[in-house]
Request: fold
Amino acid sequence: MDSGPAKRQTANSLIGYGNELLAAGETNDALRLYEAAMVLCPHSPAPYKLRGDCLLKLADHAGALEAYDRALALRPHYVTALYNRAVVKKAMGHLVEALADLDEVLAIDATSVHACSLRGDIQVEFGRLEEAEADYARALAMDPDSPVAAYRKGKAALLRQRGQNDRQAIFGYIYEAGVWGRSDDPTDRYFSGSGTRVAAYSDRYVQALRSFLGSISPPPNVVDIGCGDFFIGARVRGCCGEYVACDVVDGLIAYNKQKYADLNVDFRVLDAVDDDLPPGDVVVIREVLQHLSNDNIKSIISKIYGKYRYAVITECLPNSENFIPNLDKVTGDKIRQNVNGSGVVLTLPPFNLKVKEERVICLSEAGLTKLVTTLYSF
Reply:
């Protein structure tokens, strides 16, 4: 049934305005315009697909899935809706169904770099590393300049050779490939990402951590798990007694020992999942757990309880009350929000961290993301 030229024109205008709002990060406002377009043209697939895109951004995976289903019922070979539905299904843990959608995308458009890459990601989750490497190689052949495809192909090959749980290999390759970016200073060989450099995040965090550490007398002994490039740690070193900074990447630790030789820091190569943790008063874990699998996190958390008086833990979470916490992921460069719309909440299952008190001491919000630093007392 035809909705009429006038209605179609109005719906197209609403979609155009909605696209501008979505590009500007005004997701809820864009969603309302797309839904108005759906009312005007209920037999047009585009508004449903765009509604799905908004709900995907808002981490409403069930709603997004329904919207993409509606769009595909109206246009079965709607490639972008098929691909985005695969993204949603992967986030919901429906990996077999996600692969089926991606195979359909590639049957329609064999040159879809994104479909090949996502297919490789799912193969990694299944542990099919040879298949993943082949998918990434296919994506790289289509887009030879893609650093993401190159990194993932290399990572899959490395995991296949050294074992999927080799965290030193995983994170060593992340630094080597510059997956988290590169420093503006060419002399900095290691870079832990913009979260350590962007003042809006780092300055507020450093101020909060200094305030807490400064409230303890005498200055507490601190253990920094996943210290990374130590750009943050160096700024709070003066508030501490002894400072032990640990990371799984041996080259990074060797570099830090040289760069920060005058700060009297005990830098150690340590895999917090498998190794014993050093003693101290306060353990600091900033944007580390979000990169690890649930089993890896449980191993670390089991060692924290009873060893430290305090834990200061920072996690990147969806800026929404509707996300499902603690969905699992494979250990690697990505965080849960980007993999399955989730985030790490340590006091909830399966971690169930037992604390005397918990208090948020720093909160930074940026669109759909928030960076939360929580002080746990034991």
Residues 123 and 132 are 5 Å apart (CA to CA).
